[in-house]
C-alpha cells in the first residue's frame, strides 16, 4: 500500500470547476441531438479537485498512487451476443471517461418521465481522484466448454480461473466473474456511485456477481497499515519505476497475446483475518509471524522501515524466522526473486460481525503482475506450502476473489475498452 512518490507525476489532473469548463461528451451528444438546452451547470457540477485522466497506454488504477477507498465489483455476462458485449464496453468507456472527469452522466434537466440517467449521490462531491479499472475473467473466453463470444482463440496461455490454493475456502458467490471493475477514490460514495451506475448501464447484458469494498487509514503519514497493525506495502516497487513496471507488470506485445499489450493481470483475494486469534498473540510473536517490527516497519535485523533485510546472514532464521511472511514471500535469492516481484494495491475491509459473532474483517488483497504463474502463483504456492507454511496462514482465510486480465488503456476518444480483443 505504498504511496512514496509525487502524486502529480501520475495524475493527469485538471483544476475543474473553473469557468469555461468543457462540457462532457455525454452532455455534448445530448445537446447535439437537441434533447437538452445548453445551460450553466448546477448542482451536479463537479467540484474543484485533482482528476486522474482516463486516457493513456495503460489503464489508471494500477500505478496510480492509492486512493483511500475501493469498491471492486465482478459481473457475470448474461447475453451470448458478441455485439451486445462490445456495446457494453463502448458504453462503459464513455461513462468511465465522464465519471473520472467528474462529469454527470445525464444532461439537465432530465426527462421526468424516466428513471434518472444518473443516480445523483455524487452531486456536490469531489471525484476523490476516482479511477476505474476494467478487466476480464477467463470465463469470458470460454465457459463450460462454450466459445461464448468467439474469443476462445484469444485467451492468453496461462490465463485460467483462480485455482483453489492449499487452505483456501473459496465461496462460489464471492469468486471469479466474466468482468470486473475496480473503482478507487478518496470518497466511498464516489466509488459506490460509479459501480452502481455502471451496473445500471449493464442491465440486460451483465449483472453483479459479487462486490467488495475496502479502505485505508485516511490521514496517516507514510505507509498505510493493515488490520494486524503492520505497515503494509513497505517493499512494494516504486510507482515511478517505469523499467520495473515494463519488466514485471505490463504485458508486452511478445508475451503471446498481442491484444493484451499494455494490460496486466490482476489478482484479487478476499482474505478474512482471524482478528480475535491474532489479538491473543504476543507482540514478539506477531513480529516473528510477519518478519518485521510492528511500530517502525523495519526488518527484524534492521533499524529503519526501508532497510533491506539480510537473510543470507541468518540462514537458520534466528532473527527472521524461515516461515515468516516476508521471508517466504520474498526470499531475496537474487534474479529469480526480482523477476517474481508483484505490485500490491490492497485495501482493508471492515464489515459487520459474522453469523457467530466474530469480527468480519480482512484484506482485500489486490496485486498486479505480468505473468500469473511465474509471479503471483509462485509466491502464493510458497506461502501455502504444507511443508513450510507461512505462519500468517494460521490467521487468515481466503474466501473469494479471482484472476482478471486488465485491458490495455484507451488512448483517445472514440476508441473503447477491449477494442483490441475484438479486432
Ligand atoms: C501471494 C501474495 C501475498 C498474499 C496473499 C499476502 C497476504 C498478506 N500480506 C499481509 C501483510 C504483509 N505483507 C507484507 C509483505 C509482502 N506480502 C507479499 C505477498 C502477499 N501477501 C509480498 C510479495 C510482500 C513483500 C515482501 C518483501 O519484498 O519483503 C508485509 C510487510 C511489509 C511490506 O513490504 O509490504 C506485511 C505486513 C497480510 C496481513 C496478508 C493477508 C491478510
Ligand atoms: Fe503480504
UniProtKB/TrEMBL annotation:
One Pfam family recorded for the sequence: Dyp_perox_C
Domain (Dyp-type peroxidase C-terminal): residue spans on this chain: 223-410
Compartments it resides in: Cell envelope
Origin species: Paenibacillus aestuarii
Catalytic activities: heme b + 2 H(+) = protoporphyrin IX + Fe(2+)
Keyword Amino-acid biosynthesis: no
Cofactor note: Binds 1 heme b (iron(II)-protoporphyrin IX) group non-covalently per subunit.
Name assigned to this protein: Deferrochelatase
Record EC number: 1.11.1.-
Major location category of this protein: other
Domain Dyp-type peroxidase N-terminal span(s) in chain numbering: 59-214
Keywords recorded for this protein, A-Z: Heme, Iron, Lyase, Metal-binding, Oxidoreductase, Peroxidase, Signal
Cofactor or coenzyme needed: heme b
Organismal lineage: Bacteria, Bacillati, Bacillota, Bacilli, Bacillales
Entry's family note: Belongs to the DyP-type peroxidase family.
Top EC class for this record: oxidoreductase
Purpose: Involved in the recovery of exogenous heme iron. Extracts iron from heme while preserving the protoporphyrin ring intact.
UniProt-listed NCBIfam families: Dyp_perox_fam, TAT_signal_seq, tat_substr_1
Amino acid at each position: 500500500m505504498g504511496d512514496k512518490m509525487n502524486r502529480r507525476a501520475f495524475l493527469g489532473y485538471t483544476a475543474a470547476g473553473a469557468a469555461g469548463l468543457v462540457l462532457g461528451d455525454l452532455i455534448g451528444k445530448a445537446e447535439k441531438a437537441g434533447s437538452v438546452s445548453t445551460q450553466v451547470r448546477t448542482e451536479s457540477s463537479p467540484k474543484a479537485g485533482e482528476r486522474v485522466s482516463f486516457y493513456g497506454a495503460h489503464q489508471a488504477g494500477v500505478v496510480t498512487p492509492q486512493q483511500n477507498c475501493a469498491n471492486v465489483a465482478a459481473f457475470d455476462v448474461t447475453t451470448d451476443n458478441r455485439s451486445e458485449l462490445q456495446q457494453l464496453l463502448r458504453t462503459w468507456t464513455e461513462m468511465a471517461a465522464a465519471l473520472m472527469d467528474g462529469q454527470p452522466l445525464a444532461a439537465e434537466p432530465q426527462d421526468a418521465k424516466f428513471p434518472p440517467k444518473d443516480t445523483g449521490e455524487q452531486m456536490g462531491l469531489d471525484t476523490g481522484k476516482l479511477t476505474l479499472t476494467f478487466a476480464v475473467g477467463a470465463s469470458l473466453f470460454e465457459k463450460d466448454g462454450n466459445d461464448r463470444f468467439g474469443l476462445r482463440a484469444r485467451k492468453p496461455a496461462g490465463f485460467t480461473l483462480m485455482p483453489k490454493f492449499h487452505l483456501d475456502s473459496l465461496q462460489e458467490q464471492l469468486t471469479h466473474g466474466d468482468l470486473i471493475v475496480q473503482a478507487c477514490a478518496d470518497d466511498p460514495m464516489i466509488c459506490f456511485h460509479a459501480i452502481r451506475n455502471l451496473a445500471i448501464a449493464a442491465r440486460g447484458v451483465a449483472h453483479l456477481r459479487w462486490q467488495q469494498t475496502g479502505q485505508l487509514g485516511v490521514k496517516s503519514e507514510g505507509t498505510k497499515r493493515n488490520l494486524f497493525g503492520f505497515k503494509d506495502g513497505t517493499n512494494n516497487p516504486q510507482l515511478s519505476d517505469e523499467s520495473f513496471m515494463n519488466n514485471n507488470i505490463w504485458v508486452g506485445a511478445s508475451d503471446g497475446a498481442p491484444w493484451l499489450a499494455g494490460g496486466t493481470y490482476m489478482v484479487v483475494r478476499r482474505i478474512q483475518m482471524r482478528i480475535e486469534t491474532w489479538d491473543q498473540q504476543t507482540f514478539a510473536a506477531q513480529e516473528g509471524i510477519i518478519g518485521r517490527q510492528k511500530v517502525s516497519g523495519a526488518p527484524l535485523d534492521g533499524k529503519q522501515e526501508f532497510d533491506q533485510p539480510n537473510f543470507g546472514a541468518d540462514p537458520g532464521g534466528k532473527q527472521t524466522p524461515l516461515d515468516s511472511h516476508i521471508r517466504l514471500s520474498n526470499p531475496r535469492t537474487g534474479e529469480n526473486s526480482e523477476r517474481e516481484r508483484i505490485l500490491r494495491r490492497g485495501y482493508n475491509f471492515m464489515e459487520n460481525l459474522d453469523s457467530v459473532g466474530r469480527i468480519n474483517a480482512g484484506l482485500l488483497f489486490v496485486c498486479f503482475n505480468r505473468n500469473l504463474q511465474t509471479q503471483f502463483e509462485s509466491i502464493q504456492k510458497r506461502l501455502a506450502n504444507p511443508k513450510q507454511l507461512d505462519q500468517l496462514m494460521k490467521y487468515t482465510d481466503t474466501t473469494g476473489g479471482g484472476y482478471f486480465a486488465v485491458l490495455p488503456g484507451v488512448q483517445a476518444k472514440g476508441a473503447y475498452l477491449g477494442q483490441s480483443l475484438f479486432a
